[in-house]
Amino acid sequence: MSGPTVNSFFIGSSSGVTFSIILRPIDEETGKNTSPHPPVDTSKVTISLTRNLQLCLPNATDCCTTPLCVVETLQVLACRDSVMLAHLLIQAEIYANSSFTGNVSENATIIPNQVFQPLGSCPCDLTAGACDVRCCCDLECSPDLKQLFNESCFTGVFGGDVNPPFDQLCSSQSMEYTPDWFPFLCVQSSLNNTPFLGYFYHGSISTPKVPSFKIPLQTSPGRLFTGYRQGDPIITEENEYFTVPQKSLAGQCVGNAPVAYLQNFDVKCLTDLGSYKEGLPHDVRINSGTGDFIQQNVINRTITDTGKFITKSESLQSAKVPCQNVPFAENYTFIWKDKNIEQINVTVFHGSLCDGEILTQRFTVTFLNLESTDSEELFGNPGYQVGKPVRAANMNASDTFGSLNIWQTAGRGLCTSATSTPVLFGLDSLSGCILEVGINEDCSFLRANVIEKLNSLIQATHVGRRDNSSYSDLNDWVEIIRLDPSNSDANVSTGNLKGICPDIPANLNIRIIFADVGAVQGIPWQEILAVQISYSTVMWQFQCGLTCDNSVSFLPITASVQFIKVPAQPPVPMIRFQINYTEFDCNRNDVCWPQLFYPLTRFYTGEPYSQCLAKGLSLAFLVLLAAMMSNPWFSKVWNSYSP
């Protein structure tokens, strides 16, 4: 408690109770007892201070001469008929009030800068105003308390030894094994300059910055730009992303998705008249990659047959505007060369969207090489690019064209109405559909039906190594490794149980291994090295509702695609010497002998290379001179030429 007044309460019946105070005053005028005012079942005793608590100025009276002005011990007794019912012991330490205007001492406690302090003076002092057990450097621990744990004090830095000798110090003897070269590489330093310097310094707090779509590519517009690389977002004249609606990982369309350099896409987005939003205007100029800006060449066309784009909605028609002219499709063609964009051609198909109609908008982005005349050879790069379909071939058929697909479901997600979409290079994906199964379904027939559904996605025996693989050259293709599901009819029996089928191959796993084998005009040349197809089995069990008669259950079947990138060349295996003698491994040791001359290499950036080279040559000269002077023949030559 703080303040010049202390209140105490007596709980209970105060009838016939008298209160008295035993005071051991240092000064008789420091306090007085006021008569209690007992309410029902409660009595209150107030002890107030009458002295002025201002710190004494020169030639002043009625004040406190020291900061600790009064120390009092009071005992309050509650008695009834000379019988003590309760007592309260109050010890008061009353300090002078220093909040006044006057001349005070200029001496102040200097708090050292923690940047240059090796830890706090007592790291184990964790509780303010109390003694921490086993912390012998805690100044709040009295000698009596320290005797309780004097033999179990914390040791080391946490216990107060904030400047311990470190192992690299020349005078340190803490190392069990001291190598022969230790006197040559040890450190001569005071204990104030230790590795623990600044451990408790947290530095300044920076406010978080909200990321924006603007990228600080250059300080002044129109200056030279380093060009685009594959996957870099295309930038507009306003230093913002050039956006075209695309699909997110959740399958929904995102209107402000950036267009990535050399990555084609073809997406379809559903919208209606109420939720339609205008996209990026076509008069926006694009950064070509050299700091120049190019204008989009826009061609507007009108769609007369809107049946492929519009479906009727079942919701109520509530839009205020009955019809509106909106883009039905937008096709962007980027003509590129090296790291720059040379031209942009945009074809926009317009149509009329009315209330109660659902529009399927289509957006395509295609990159064409300026030096390529074949429309199929989009990049001039024989390797695969991210987002392009994986080429497949069926070498066992007269028509070698094949397909490698995954499901694209719609509506209820049933396999009977599901369509397929090609596997896109570099994009891991997972798709599936639902198969209707009856309670009396034969397990063998169910397995065969599921395998047939999954195999319909893989109409190929080989996959193209490159995007321009020739059907006439078998070396351009990689044979698909198939791990067929095992037939468990012979060793698994469910008896006469209905609605239970074990080992159903409901999951198709496609693993594609690829590598970077080179680069064409700075664009990675990626090839497929191997393809494996396997199956994962599940136990299907019929799920009943209220009744199981004449009902149908569902079995989800999935197809997953995983792209695994490996090095083009296998890593060099470690020799036995490198495995056994780890002291030469720089990743597992503090001392790295292979990097002894690291300051003389181009990788060292602490000083200019010319200075490092000059210092290195000077050091080599001194070492060579010392070696020559230590040789016995040097003294003979020196004595022979000396007078």
UniProtKB/TrEMBL annotation:
<dbReference type="InterPro" id="IPR040354">
    <property type="entry name" value="TCTN1-3"/>
</dbReference>
<dbReference type="GO" id="GO:0060271">
    <property type="term" value="P:cilium assembly"/>
</dbReference>
<feature type="domain" description="Tectonic-1-3 N-terminal">
    <location>
        <begin position="97"/>
        <end position="206"/>
    </location>
</feature>
<protein>
    <submittedName>
        <fullName>TECT2 protein</fullName>
    </submittedName>
</protein>
<dbReference type="InterPro" id="IPR057724">
    <property type="entry name" value="TCTN1-3_N"/>
</dbReference>
<dbReference type="Pfam" id="PF07773">
    <property type="entry name" value="TCTN_DUF1619"/>
</dbReference>
<comment type="subunit">
    <text>Part of the tectonic-like complex (also named B9 complex).</text>
</comment>
<dbReference type="InterPro" id="IPR011677">
    <property type="entry name" value="TCTN1-3_dom"/>
</dbReference>
<comment type="similarity">
    <text>Belongs to the tectonic family.</text>
</comment>
<keyword id="KW-0970">Cilium biogenesis/degradation</keyword>
<dbReference type="GO" id="GO:0007224">
    <property type="term" value="P:smoothened signaling pathway"/>
</dbReference>
<keyword id="KW-0732">Signal</keyword>
<feature type="domain" description="Tectonic-1-3">
    <location>
        <begin position="383"/>
        <end position="566"/>
    </location>
</feature>
<keyword id="KW-0325">Glycoprotein</keyword>
<dbReference type="GO" id="GO:1904491">
    <property type="term" value="P:protein localization to ciliary transition zone"/>
</dbReference>
<dbReference type="GO" id="GO:0036038">
    <property type="term" value="C:MKS complex"/>
</dbReference>
<feature type="domain" description="Tectonic-1-3">
    <location>
        <begin position="226"/>
        <end position="369"/>
    </location>
</feature>
<dbReference type="Pfam" id="PF25752">
    <property type="entry name" value="DUF1619_N"/>
</dbReference>
